[in-house]
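User: Could you check the structure of this?
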Amino acid sequence: MDTLVAFVVAVLVIGFFMRSYLNRQKNNEEEARAAAEKGKLYSSGPQSQHPHIDANYCIGCAACTMVCPEGDVLAMLGGKAVIVNGYKCIGHSLCAEVCPVGAITMVMASPSMGADMPFLTPEHETSIKNLFIVGELGGLALIKNAINQGRDCVDTIANKVASRGIARRSPDVYDVLIVGAGPAGISASLRAIEKKLNYLTVDEGEIGGTVAKYPRQKLVMTSPVEFPMHGKFKKTELSKEELIAFWHKVLERADFKLCQGEKVEDIKKGEDSIFTVATPKAQYRAHAVVLALGKSGSPRKLGVKGEYLPKVMYRLIEADHCINKRILIIGGGDSAIEAAMGLGH
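Assistant: Sure, the predicted structure tokens are below.
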């Protein structure tokens, strides 16, 4: 009799906890579904990059949802990982790296989903053959992505050069001309050296691109990355100054061919499929062109009276210079928020 009572009590207790568990699961799924519908990702998709989840392989371990630095890009729904806030994704790729079954890959949304997104093949080639776009200009944020794209893009070009044959290479036509000396451009340049390509890199400003304009001591990298000819950077936290110092070491290489202070004004492709790249100082001819421009080389101006006064700035490099001053920040994006936090501190 006691055994029967104990059994009945055990069944009731287990039933209670199971019902509570299922209710929690249902609530979690409803919240995830509501978030997904709010972000309109089921119907229209994110605006640039996002993880693609193959539900056939997903085992529901939730590792991807826990590792995401943005917190709520992914959620669990019906025992599977789903995208709920894809627009927040900035391409860390940690979800793809931590997935134990390889069910996640990073992909770009359809160009129709973002008017400012260029059409690119998986090899970063545009609709114009042998014209490539890498880095932030292509829609993917993060220095790590820019470095990887610059390296991979030149691998594609090197394969094309090899298929053309050495006999068809002309000394007055570069195998590749790289526009921009930021993370993507430097990575592409080093890979070009490694692949023994005839290349040239041009940049209108200082080496480092957007990174050189970041605030002092800004943390710029939080995961390891492999630089051509220098191996893997194993340090998980890298400041702006540390990365710039490395790039200046690259500048000292005798085989690093960089023309600074040259802004590209025109690119034309001739009937012979050779590109002519024009700057104020020269014209260069190349079989392939890599645009590693970033997005901050020429800041957008307001077009209002007074914006060219000395006290008007388009970047905050050193917040300490603004102590005890009244500052007006115009804009509400990431850079504006970062500047406000720095100034407030």
